[in-house]
Amino acid sequence: MAGSGELTPQEYISHHLTNLQAGSGFWTFNIDSLIFSVLLGSLMMWIFYRVGKKATSGVPGKLQCFVEMVVEFVDASVKDIFHGKNALVAPLALTVFGWVFLMNLMDLIPVDFIPHTATLLGIPYLRVVPTTDVNITMSMSLGVFILILYYSIKIKGIGGFAKELGLQPFNHWAFIPINLILEGVTLLAKPVSLGLRLFGNMYAGELIFILIAGLLPWWSQWVLSVPWAIFHILIITLQAFIFMILTIVYLSQASEEH
């Protein structure tokens, strides 16, 4: 698109970093991020449902074998980190890993493929990687944060949770204000770091693909885009894994009685 003369490189990059939005002010919705995240989440549930329904005890097919490997990998990770009894943690970890991985995987689609098709259909802006939208990543981390608070209060009680915030790391009533500041910052840093880490890494990866497509002629883009895509596969998988592991770790900490 950039090489056709329709847009300057600056306009091309800005165009690909703009979401399709509806509403105004605080109630502005990034429609493309919402649509693609819901579609990919539905795709993940459909794949696991289909595999689970058609699972056989004999020699599994390729898809069933892949899904079983993912399930066993997530189950082993949960058992290594979470030592309590909670029926939610393993399914949540599997959902987080699969959903984030599929959203990240959209970054490997050529940057002009879907947006240019959308432009032909009259859609001016379209970003296809939901995890490059900070609203999506922070919404997911906010959901994890709500679970952290829920299990902290459920396991320790309101009094126990209050003591954890007010009497650590200095176990004396005179240090309660200092403890509240320290523990409050630590508590709030969990969802913030969880969401911003995923957003920052995926946004940087998307930006590199856009820079390659916007600044190089179409016939030479593969020289840089292919090696970066191969390396980016590692980033995509690693970020999904980190988000899952930190979710398990935070819920494990919330479920521990001090």
Automatic annotation (TrEMBL):
InterPro entries: ATP_syn_F0_a_bact/chloroplast, ATP_synth_F0_asu, ATP_synth_F0_asu_AS, F0_ATP_A_sf. It is found in: Cell membrane; Membrane. One of its GO terms (biological process) is proton motive force-driven plasma membrane ATP synthesis. SUPFAM superfamilies: F1F0 ATP synthase subunit A. It is a multi-pass membrane protein. The chain crosses the membrane at residues 26-49, 87-106, 134-153, 198-220, 226-251. Keywords: ATP synthesis, Cell inner membrane, Cell membrane, CF(0), Hydrogen ion transport, Ion transport, Membrane, Transmembrane, Transmembrane helix, Transport. GO terms for molecular function: proton-transporting ATP synthase activity, rotational mechanism. Its main location: membrane. One of its GO terms (cellular component) is proton-transporting ATP synthase complex. Belongs to the ATPase A chain family. Key component of the proton channel; it plays a direct role in the translocation of protons across the membrane. NCBIfam families: ATP_synt_6_or_A, PRK05815.1-1. This is ATP synthase subunit a. The lineage of its organism: Bacteria, Pseudomonadati, Pseudomonadota, Gammaproteobacteria, Vibrionales.
